[in-house]
Amino acid sequence: MIDTNSLKEQIRQRTDLVELVSEHVALRASGRDFVGLCPFHNEKTPSFTVSPEKQIFKCFGCGAGGDVFTFVQLRESTSFPEAVRTLADRAGIDYDRMVGQGPSSGINRADIARVNGWAANQFSQAFSDSSDGRVARAYVSERKISDEMVARFGIGWAPDDSQWLQNRARESGIGEDLLLASGLIQAGQRGDKYSVFRGRLMFPIRDTMNRVIGFGGRTLKGDKAKYLNTSQNVLFDKGNNLYGVDLARLPMGEKRSAVVVEGYTDCIAAHQFGFKNVVATLGTALTDNQVNLLRRWNDEIILVFDSDNAGMNAADRAIGVALRYNLAVKIAHVTEGKDPSDFLHAKGSGEFDLVLKSAIDALVFKWDRTLEKFSSTVGSTRKEAIREFVSVVAEMTRFQTVDAIQRGLVVNQLSKLLALPADDVHRMLAERTRAKVAGGERNRINLSQSGEPIARAENFGERSGGRVDAEQTALLTILKVLINEPGYFSDVEEVFRPVRIADSRARSVAERVVALCESIGEFTVQELLGGVENPHDAAFVADLVYQGTQLGNFDVTIADTCNRLKGIEVLRQGKEAAQQLRMAASQGSTETDAQEIEALRRIQSSLTGSHGFAPGIPASRWTGMSE
């Protein structure tokens, strides 16, 4: 058994922040750091920075910042202990064994991810079994899914037995409460428990951290529900995830383009034929959260839905979501009434590539659909078609809530498409959205359940009565330097007094910095963040780190700031001596008092120097201090 701090240190050593963040965001090198779109708020220009050297991240847009633990806390909306468990699992560390504890009494996201991973292995074993998995293997063979894809996507089989999974769980020491929480079993009307997935081909659904977050199951025994997904729980929401995103995120990042299909087998077939940037929706229309997930790696989305009416309607709905996020959206559809999987196996990768290359712009697709609708209506006119089309586009794009650049792009595109002046198009769009506009989106994420705004290290306690407080500025400057270069502690030890920092959060960080300097000497930012569990506090420290890096020459900064603090201390002591002199003079003086007053005069003289003021402090600052 080891202590929690040692466990966290092991996790840090095994977890590279750049690699972790890259599972969620496409990063590109920028000098010594990496930058990308922030995963915690909507933005079009990257403001999210990751430092591989310090192993911290910082968003200059919403203010989020911290280390690997903070990132998981924010990304998963979870507690610090659960983030530790999640990263321990990712790093291959047995959390419970390391800390000498049994399984926790409360079931959390990490627990559900672990039992899902276990279940995926059971389904995979059942698929390979010569008796249980025969029907599943026959179906996979019929769909021409290769053995490589079976292994890569972890395809499995859930036997048609309501107690099969529970029996396996008992053998593995897994309780029913965990199976219930993960949605793998559920209670019947009589209180009996039964497996949710029975007689189904199983498709494990993984997130960008490669965790099994849920399952999709296709019936092979003729159930009314052809496909069944894991029910929503604390880990899984089918509207927030995409099938295959764990395998597609890197190829998408390289191409800056995503291909979205509807079905599990469509996604698998695309990967089998070499199209690695393909993901699938999970039985829902494309949602805002799914588009937000895609935009981390992509500038373009190609929607490839079935060519039947249901597929066209699904594409129609998807356009309205995707266009709101400054993404280029195109629509492609396969011919001959086939789905993408059938088309690929019948026509091959070359023909499917032509389908993707012939994808049409989303607005062109929508206009064509509108014209088709009105052409079948007696007495309809082109003017009516334009009016409806513009209304739909205005609603799709939430026209007045997108930024000016995006509005301009939409207007110009519609102007060319409809052969109308841009001013007319802009006016029509504005008219149709004016009554519906409810205001812009929040650009800042809440980092706590209380909704407390992100704390900034900037100007904390540096102002007093509307004026810049020189002492607070100097103390915070030293703090920013020490966080980046603790080796300067010996140079500032004499003047750096955390107790004098006005802001409580900065004072707490400064006290920890001093404690680390005195105990271990030069420390890392990771060690400083070792005792930080609140995302607000982690963001605050990250803010201090990045502000410190912008100070410039640390030698000059420290020398100047120390001199400034020494001068401020001289000024303070001089004021105190002058105040005591005034008080003594006003009260009259005995012989003993006269001796004390003379002693105070000598102290003041030594502090102020022969010219009546401290070196470096203007004489005007001393006005009225001495009698």
Kindly estimate the percentage of residues that lie in beta strands according to DSSP.
5-15%
Largest sheet strand order: 1-2-3-4-5
In which range does the helix fraction lie?
A: 40-55%
First-residue to last-residue Cα separation: 68 Å
Described by strand count, sense and barrel closure, the largest sheet is: 5 strands, antiparallel
Would you count the extended β strands for me? 18
Helix/sheet category: alpha+beta
What would your notes on this structure say?
The chain is an alpha+beta fold and 627 residues long. 50% of the residues lie in helices and 11% in strands. It contains 27 helices and 18 strands. It has a 5-stranded antiparallel beta sheet with strand order 1-2-3-4-5. The protein has a 5-stranded mixed beta sheet with strand order 13-12-14-15-16, sandwiched between helices. A 4-stranded antiparallel beta sheet has the order 6-9-10-11, with helices on one face. β1 and β2 form a beta hairpin. α21 packs across α23 (504-520), α21 packs across α25 (535-549) and α26 (554-586) runs antiparallel to α27 (591-608). The protein is globular. The termini are far apart. Mean pLDDT is 81; it is low at 437-453 and 610-627.
